[in-house]
Design a protein that fits this description.
- This protein has about 550 residues and is of the alpha+beta class.
- The protein folds into five domains: about 110 residues, Roll (SH3 type barrels), CATH 2.30.30; about 70 residues, SH3 Domains (SH3 type barrels, Roll), CATH 2.30.30.40; about 60 residues, SH3 type barrels (Roll); about 70 residues, SH3 Domains (SH3 type barrels, Roll); about 180 residues, Zn-dependent exopeptidases (Aminopeptidase, 3-Layer(aba) Sandwich), CATH 3.40.630.
- It has nine helices and 35 strands.
- The radius of gyration is 25 Å and the shape is globular.
- Bound molecules: zinc ion.
- The site of zinc ion has 6 residues, from loops.
Length: about 550
């Protein structure tokens, strides 16, 4: 019992460590960033020669690059759709990327796609622009689908795919939708690094804004800016002032009256809270999301000090009222809660409704002296890949409200019998053992999933896991199969053993070591586990 609880603490500890690190980071000078960005584009003009390395490609708009793997760390820059970055390392759901010769930043995995090496540093993407004043964007590729939103000329949207006369586009809030091809113009759009210099400009959002000589209210006024005027930002300071260039000299404006392109997501305004209701005060600039987890899109951002009434809770996430109609979710650890949350209703999203009260045991195969398979090309140990995958999957499952127990959360040896004991002692609903495969024939590539009991829950879970894993990873489908493994045979809990890819196959091994691989594999297994547990409940 105690062991499971210790293992569960892993994520919290990790999060605390990351937070500590983030706080230590110093605010980076904006103008230094411009230099980095220029350097970055230079490096990428040479990148065609540097074929080695892993890259991620940005798949969202105005993506923050941060000083650490945590949304609480400083934003050191932004990236745009289509930008690609060399991956230096990964931590949980974050990629550390190169933004300059010796400069690095962190991007959240949900905002990029990883896996392949991109031949072109800035891949050309096709974009879509409305021809008409108002073009409907629909949920599917025909007029029978509901209208999701409308688009107007002047804004171009990334083209995702075509289906007949219809085109799927990506919307700025990361949703997708379909437009009729006869109502839009498509063109090639080079993701341009030149746009970066424009990003250092902020827009004045107050009617009039004083520029002061010093970052203080009483300081001499150098001049006044009008609404919608653009200012060149030197540094966004932590004290609520932004250093700008004004008439060839340095001046200061109140940060809350300007908007940086990187912060182009709307700010939620503080809402007066009725007496007696629980409320949160945002400790630092935070993302307010459409759902209770970092996997949900950002709806608006909340400035440090903003206050919102709490309307619901889901695990460690709080739903808050951001205007008279809209609600959004914020991570409770980024806020200060005032009043009692006891009366606040606990809600379960559609995703977690089947998972609360469920227990999943994740079993990272091998460990310690038992390294498992060894990558033929790189010498990578299977035990390390298994653990990385287990941790990624662990984080995903935690957001659903399920209880997740790891049979090991570090590089230690755990006997097969102990692994089974943990599953039974924790009265797990599912046991998922994670492995990488080997084969004498180096040509064999793909994913496979093993079960022990032919009829029943094991087989069903194996089928689901195999299907989702293949759909997500895209490796050959070697099927869900019977396997006489100790952790399956001796286990009374519904159990499967996943062989994610072959470390004896050059391509599989290469893929397994890619930064985005764990994310994709975990995503597939996550979907399978969620639907399996939801079915169990029905
Ligand atoms: Zn193994």
């Amino acid at each position: 019992m105690s062991k499971g609880r210790i293992l569960q603490k892993w994520s919290r500890r990790e999060r605390a460590n990351r937070r500590k690190k983030g706080v230590k980071e110093v605010v980076k000078k904006r103008n230094r960033l411009i230099a980095l960005v220029l350097l970055f584009s230079l490096i990428f003009s040479l990148a065609a020669f540097a074929e080695e390395g892993h890259f991620v490609k940005v798949t969202a708009y105005d993506v923050n690059i941060r000083s650490g793997p945590d949304t609480e760390t400083t934003v050191i820059g932004t990236a745009n759709f289509g930008d690609s970055f060399e991956v230096i390392s990964t931590m949980n759901d974050w990629y550390q990327v190169r933004v300059g010769k010796d400069a690095f930043g962190w991007i959240h995995a949900s905002l990029v796609k990883a896996g392949t090496r991109f031949a072109a540093p800035n891949p050309t993407i096709e974009v879509v622009e409305a021809n008409d004043v108002q073009v409907n964007v629909r949920g599917g590729a025909s007029t029978s689908y509901e209208i999701v939103t409308t688009i107007r000329p002047g804004t171009r949207y990334p083209l995702l795919q075509r289906s007949g006369d219809w085109i799927q586009i990506r919307l700025p809030d990361e949703r997708t939708g379909w437009v009729a091809s006869w109502l839009v113009t498509t063109s090639e759009n080079k993701a341009k690094s030149t746009a970066k210099s424009e990003q250092m400009q902020a827009t004045v959002i107050a009617d009039e804004l004083n520029v002061r000589q010093e970052p203080a209210l009483g300081a001499t006024v150098l001049g006044t800016l009008q609404q919608n005027e653009l200012v060149a930002v030197q540094e966004e300071r932590k004290d609520g002032w932004t250093e700008i260039e004004y008439d060839g000299r340095i001046g200061y404006v109140a940060s809350e009256y300007i908007r940086l392109p990187g912060h182009s997501i709307l700010q939620a305004e503080s809402r007066p809270v009725e007496a007696g209701l629980a409320q949160v005060i945002v400790k630092e600039q935070v993302n307010l999301r459409t759902g209770p987890g970092t996997n949900f899109p950002v709806l608006v951002s909340g400035r440090a000090g903003s206050q919102f009434a709490v309307t619901a809770k889901s695990g460690a996430w709080l739903q808050v009222q951001i205007d008279s109609e809209k609600k959004a979710w914020v991570a409770s650890w980024l806020t200060e809660v005032q009043g009692s949350l006891d009366g606040v209703p606990e809600v379960h999203g559609s995703l977690d409704s089947g998972l609360r009260g469920k227990t999943v045991v994740l079993d990272a195969g091998h460990g310690g002296f038992d390294v498992g398979a060894v990558g033929r090309q790189s010498g990578v140990f299977e035990k390390d890949l298994n653990l990385a995958l287990a941790r990624t999957l662990y984080n995903k499952l935690l957001t659903t409200g399920a209880r997740v127990v790891m049979t090991r959360d570090d590089d230690s040896f755990v006997s097969l019998d102990d692994r089974v004991q943990i599953a039974e002692r924790e009265q797990a609903d599912l046991f998922v053992s994670l492995h990488y495969n080997t084969h004498a024939d180096a040509n064999i590539s793909g994913s496979m999933t093993f079960y022990y009991s032919e009829n029943g829950a094991d087989h069903q879970l194996a089928r689901q896991a195999q299907q989702e894993l293949v759909a997500s990873l895209g490796l050959p489908d070697l099927g869900a199969r019977f396997g006489d493994y100790y952790v399956l045979r001796e286990n009374r809990v519904t159990s499967i053993l996943v062989e994610t890819a072959f470390l004896t196959n050059q391509q599989d091994e290469w893929s397994a070591k890619e930064a985005g691989h764990q994310e994709l594999a975990a995503e597939g297994l996550f979907r399978a586990i969620v639907s399996n547990l939801q079915e169990q409940r029905e």
